[in-house]
Records
---
Amino acid sequence: MFAKDLWEDLMSIWSCRTIFQCGLYADRKVQGPLCDVMCSQHLTIHGCLSLRPEKHVLHVSWEQRETWDMSHDQAEVILKFDSGWHKMAAQSTTLTDTHLNYSYHTEQQAYNTCMEEFESSQDCHKFAGRIALYADGDSDGEVTLGEATNMLSLLSIREFFMLVALNDSEWTLDILGYCGGFYAVQKVQHTSSQIYHNDDHVLDILPVMFIDNINEVLVPMFGVYGDRLKNYVYRNFQQVRVPTWQDRINFINQSFGILYDLSFQYGTTVRACDSHFSNYGVMDSGKVKYIDMDSIMSTKAAQTDLNNRDCEEDEDCKALGDNDDCFSTCDREIGLCHNTMKTNDLHNFCTRTLSPILLSKAVLLELGVVKEVAVQLLDLVQQCKNLPLYTSVEDFRTKGIMNIWNKFNKIVQDKK
């Protein structure tokens, strides 16, 4: 009953928000490549992935799609709505000058937003030009007030801004379109926590033939509930099986690549301020993606955020308010946070991703990892934790990331 009530509440919220968005779309106050789909009842909701008050995340699909980029066409996608969009959209609608060149205005505002984050004029000009093109939601060659309003309000959402800014990186999710405060992104088949969690792997005791005969086994045993249980096991069986040691090595190597790519964007280092391994996704092909961009920000932006924070204790000094990965200390004499963070992304990666995926007790025992390899990897994690906070991008990339990455591969390759 609870699940049914929750789903009905979700559908009610979804209905209210889509009706509101479609009303704005009908009045041409918002535009976007997804508006026709959302407002023509072609969209099917398969499930809710998050009900956080500030953001709803849905698993959806639709027919007859005409997306932002047809090369990324997928049957199923992830649709997100950020509740903060309403406030920013209301501010953007103050643009009422009918003689304003909205394409130029959008480009200028996008440039300013980018410069606040990165301070790289050349890169931000390219970003702004891209945004001006994206803002033309109906591709008619002209940016209207509604289109400008829509795009500028979306740029105020950190995840959307970063998805567009880092869109050239192969580890980011593709954006497939938007409408009002909704935006669609590529669906990743699995989260890394589903694959690499360290719980007891109960279903591994089942014989291999079980999967092939699941229908014959479950339906007679559980009657009308057999089909539901069958579908659940089909969905989750592969995710609870223990990945091989090589699977884990491949995942860590790809994650090192993501870390290295983040270390130099728009002339600076980009921080992942919430970098636990659950924020990685894995495609069926094995390709690793970073799936939660809410807390991705430039080092400059993180430092500015900390500089502007009042504090009474160190606990108050976290970038974006609640992220342990980008934190500093409190200067109690003046009641402000220092802007020098205590750790960098490499420190956090070694302790929060590499270590649990390769060195948890369950992994070492179940996979029979050679003791010498485990000891060397434990030592590498300690070396990583002891690295200094490099002040230059080049030092961080070479003396930090590449140094640890090369040592990691030497350890695991020597023991193949």
Note: DSSP finds 17 helices and twelve strands in the chain.
---
Amino acid sequence: FFFFQAEDGIRDAQESRGLGDVYKRQVHGGPVMEKILLEGKPRQTLFTGSSKIAERLANLLNGKICIEDAGFDWKILGPDVSEFEYVCWQSDQDAYACAGQKCSAQSIVFAHENWVKKGFFDKIGELAGRRKLDDLTCAPVLTWNNDKIKAHIDAVLKVPGAKLLYGGKPLTGHKIPSCYGAYEATGVFVPLESMLNPQYTDLVFTELFGPFQILTEYKENQIDQVLDACERMTHHLTAGVVSNDMQFLHKVLGRTINGVTYSGIRARTTGAPQNHWFGPAGDPRGAGIGTAEGMLKVWTCHREVIQDYGPIPKNWKLPPPS
């Protein structure tokens, strides 16, 4: 059995660094973890990291693998505005703690118009502006360099109606090697209508594994469009529904499929307050990391031993063949 963790969040084997560099070198023929796995022929492997590497290993290991998987993780702010400062702080933490380099980091926020009127976008920008390298609330990005980060931000800003809300600049005054990223905590607004346009959906829902998130606003009558957007995302790991409105919660929770969904006014996307199921929904390879059920699923299997000690009847005779 093998447990292999590559929590640098590689999304492209060619671009990986950190722990994921083993896969970058493997592409060019170096002896790496993949070689150990193939030669060791494990009965089971638990992999927590990139979705692309998970798919590669699933093929190479003939499906003998459980995964944590990646996630373009969303948060929906419901119509009932309360605990404004706390919700803004939690959103800043979800998106930018560890420079956004967590598989469960917040990638997009759907803010109800009531939150926007209250000043949510301004407040989240203010909180993001407190982050700096000196106290490591900004940090090097292992898998995206500045050129790649800038190219993605520029591409998203070309989506109709998109605009930069805050950040958007490389960090200065440091000695971080250019092969890594060093960027301000950044937020880009994209209209809901634009991200639902098939021409832009894949771009907007691309996970930048660093200090970057998409923000958008929805009106009271647009919740179904928001849920449509969530359904279009390709990896359903974590999510947050920030509301104490039970009817709203039931609607959203009943129509989304993420493996872990936090709900309530204190909902987050990352930083679990306790161990619970952690893995993608709708994928039989989901590992369920952090739970007794997950340990049983990954590290045990069903088998049976049939016992038949007799006795043989004393009048038993050799029967004809059957």
Note: The beta strands are 2-5, 45-48, 65-67, 73-77, 106-112, 163-166, 186-189, 212-218, 238-242, 260-263.
---
Amino acid sequence: MSNLKQRKKNHHLEHKDDGRKSKKPSAFYQAKPFVISLAIATVILLLILLGANIYNINLLDIYRYSVTKQSTSESKVSYPKASITSVNDYSIRGLLDDGDQSMKENKLDEALKIYSSIVKKYPSSPRGLYGLAVTFDKLAEKRRSNDYLENSIAEYQKVLNQKDVPKDLYFLAGKRLANRQTFRGWSSKAAETLEKMTQKYSNSSELWNELGVSNLIAGRNDPARQAFKQALEINPNDGYAKVHLGFIIKTIDLNNEDGIKLLQDGIQSKHPGTKDGRFYFHLGDALQRIDKNNEALEVYEEGAKIGLFLSKYQRSLYNVNSLTGQPWWTPEQTKNNKYLKLLEDNWKVIRDEGLAQMDAEKGTFLPEEENLREKGDWKQFTLYQQGKKM
């Protein structure tokens, strides 16, 4: 009897177990969600591949870009040239650094090959174009070649035309481009370049100053004045802007008092670019014009002490080192006694000939244009102006 009950109990347990097993899903149904997901993923991948083929998209490039972007954000910070290296340039930084090293070692032909190769393969590489521009720039100086100079100008311009140029690199390339354009004699183009840069870096007093100088060289005095004023709005203590604005006010406006104040402040700042014979000369000249002769001589003497003038009496801005210079000469010292005697004996004839040419209607002399006159009537006959025959 007990055996029968035990068998029934076991049978009941087996029946319950069978019942549970019958409710468990089969292997197919268990794998079905995975199969469906795999199928969907396959379809999506096929669509991506089809789209990539239609639109000529390189998926490997997309992958490389995403990986490069991720790795760049993680490791670019420690790269010494990170501030001038774009995301894409970071992936070829080894090649770019090789070019930089060759240029640093003055192996310019080797650097030219490296950068030319980079630009050929990566025509939109900002650092590649910049490296090529600098190499041409150095070759132009070494070989005194305008062809190389113009090549460098063209490459610097290409840097500015790229879309992903790092801000620091754009600044370097733009400044040097304007400098090379000025050196080439293209002052108007240099001013255009700097105009664009001041729009991008409107708070840079340095760029406003360079724009002012470019306009001065090009003979555009009013735009130059405004550029220097803008520099002083940004930095009221900018000595470089002060000496240039003082120069304009003294020589163009003929305002000696205001010119003196700016020239003095600028020179005393000792900022780079203020130690220039032109500013010392015009400060002294302005002081003389308001009868402050002793102060003027002190300015000239200071200029002579720092090597801007041969002496306080010899204020020529251009001197030849191999020639002897002194403020006063005796006829014997000049070794031209005979010719000096001719001048001495015929000075009245020379005077009359000169006066005849100063006739307002028939003469060829015009009022002098450099504001050299303190009093009286000074006229000049201009042969060349800014390198052009008049």
Note: Residues 75 and 294 are 64 Å apart (CA to CA).
---
Amino acid sequence: MAEAASNKKAMEIPTKLNTSIDCKQGAVRAVRFNVDGSYALTCGSDKTIKLWNPHSSTLIKTYSGHGYEVLDVQSSCDNGQLCSGGLDKAVILWDVASGKTVRKFRGDQGHLSSINCVRFNEESTLVLSGSVDGSVRIWDCKSHKKEPVQILDEAKDSVTSLVVSDHEILTGSADGKTRRYDIRMGQMHSDHIGHSVTCVSFTRDGQCTLVSSLDNTIRLMDKTSGELLNEFSGHTNKTYKIDSCLSCSDTHVISGSEDGKVYIWDLVEAKVEHKLEHGKMTVHSLSYHPTDSCLLTACGNKMWVWKSNYASIA
């Protein structure tokens, strides 16, 4: 039984390099699966966003409209729209099919500095953006108002990462804290990490948070109590904003690293099980398929597609 369980876990881990794609965008700043994992988005230092079928290495569309580097992008729940943000301080809402800009949120009520992260809410009626100016701004996709519907400005330094659930917003900041906003209760809970936070995420069951910080450590924490449940180390993360995430089944923790590898830990034992080699450049962005054993990573000018031998997608 134990051997069968071990083999099942091994099947879930995407350690086989399927392909690497030169995105021709300069440096690829972020890579993201869409909501069902059929497509991928990359944003680059050349001011563009590209939509791909990563499973066939096919470029589908290019989106141009930002004035400087694009740092983050996400697709809506129905795949009809994209939101993006970057060094030009603008949040842009795109129509996927036409490639045209639907809305551009910036100006007097916009961010005062670069935008690190963008997310839709679950219904994709709102866009949330986190910035170097220390704020999260919430924008209404349906309204024609230019000002945000809400500003969360509790952070004392850059907001580096954010994630949204059905009733909560989780943010990470360079001030060394995570903040969880309970929208239903109108409450904010903060946890002191002690080092600049570079990435935050919820576990799939919504009970825990995964927090990366600039002390070469990833922490698994109880969402409600803030109790430290586990720590993951071995990778290098002292300087750059680097993504981490959980596998689609919550069995493994995955992170980029400044030593040119992706590290994969067992969630319970916190042992490094695999290292995915990318060369010498920092692996700063990654995205795990929502339902299958497939991983996207970004390093240099390339998107890398990793699968297990048992992945159900071709």
Note: Residues 197 and 213 are 4 Å apart (CA to CA).
